[in-house]
Amino acid sequence: MKFTAQQIAGILEGEVDGDGGAEVSKLAKIEEGIPGSLTFLANPKYTSFIYSTKASITIVSKDFVADNPISTTLIRVEDAYKSFSQLLEYYNQVKMNKTGIEQPVFISESATMGDGIYLGAFSYIGENVVIGKDAKIYPNVYIGDNVTLGNNVIVFAGAKIYSETEIGNNCVINSGVIIGADGFGFSPNEKGEFTKVPQTGNVIIEDNVDIGAGTTIDRATLGSTIIRKGVKLDNQIQIAHNVEIGKNTVIAGQTGIAGSTKIGENCLIGGQVGFAGHLVIGDNVRIQAQSGIGRNIKDGETLQGSPAFNYSSFSKSYVHFKNLPKTMERFNAIEKQLKDE
């Protein structure tokens, strides 16, 4: 796809300074710009590159004043960074605006699909599946029986959605995601052998949820594993059976959440955080990366460490920990001095 400077300025409500017919078909960093590419300047420390960039078009803020000659066509906007982000979103919408049903696919006769959907090749749509309008199902996606997908859902290639799962509107499910696999439920018998506990619940994902590549969300033993509205999950997260994650919580990659733990609303959770099972985590909690959570957490706490404790206390304690060898040297010297006396 090619866009002219005039077209881009129209999308961004900006002004062209230079050749309105300049065309671009790719994006680039300002220091790596080549002919036919579009870039932007928002951070002042990159200003020097605007005089050397080979990018055909550069988005800048309206107050930018060039100190030297430039060859790139400028599009002047109120906020260069915000406008570039807006353009990326527009580009993605255009790029992914696929419709129709490719072949081969399998669609159960009992499935129902809304208008404007895209269904990629080699996808499988099971019994009684309901897919809302304008959904995008990319190739090699498996959707099991009795699954419901809302409007404007995007499911990228290779994702697997097991039976009974409910997914709301405007959700994004990235490649390799598995939703609704059995929870890790086993019980020992009198011989010390472990037998499987049937996992008969489902997964419910509410509106506006993003799920990163390779993340797994297990179905409940009974009832539902629930991901509330606006939750954002990074890549490679493990969410166990009967977990509930509150609205607008954001979780970074490689975090693991054990069964039946409840996480509140508006929490920010760093990467590689481990949660024990059956915990209650309050609202507005902040947890630093690589923390281990083994107790209930009150609203508004900020934690770090393993096991995690108050962030401020951890930071103070860590200073002493780093200085422990020197502290021990001083302690030993004082002890020796006292003995000599």
TrEMBL record:
Source species: Patiriisocius marinistellae
Keywords carried by this UniProt record: Acyltransferase, Lipid A biosynthesis, Lipid biosynthesis, Lipid metabolism, Repeat, Transferase
Annotated GO MF terms: N-acyltransferase activity; UDP-3-O-[(3R)-3-hydroxyacyl]-glucosamine N-acyltransferase activity
Enzyme class: transferase
Catalytic activity: a UDP-3-O-[(3R)-3-hydroxyacyl]-alpha-D-glucosamine + a (3R)-hydroxyacyl-[ACP] = a UDP-2-N,3-O-bis[(3R)-3-hydroxyacyl]-alpha-D-glucosamine + holo-[ACP] + H(+)
Subunit annotation: Homotrimer.
Protein's pathway: Bacterial outer membrane biogenesis; LPS lipid A biosynthesis
Superkingdom per UniProt: Bacteria
Function, in words: Catalyzes the N-acylation of UDP-3-O-acylglucosamine using 3-hydroxyacyl-ACP as the acyl donor. Is involved in the biosynthesis of lipid A, a phosphorylated glycolipid that anchors the lipopolysaccharide to the outer membrane of the cell.
Active-site residue numbers: H241
InterPro entries from the UniProt entry: Hexapep, LpxD, Trimer_LpxA-like_sf, UDP_GlcNAc_AcTrfase_non-rep
Pfam family, one: Hexapep_2
GO-annotated cellular components: membrane
UniProt record, GO biological process: lipid A biosynthetic process
Protein name, UniProt field: UDP-3-O-acylglucosamine N-acyltransferase
Enzyme Commission designation: 2.3.1.191
Limits of the UDP-3-O-[3-hydroxymyristoyl] glucosamine N-acyltransferase non-repeat region domain: 23-89
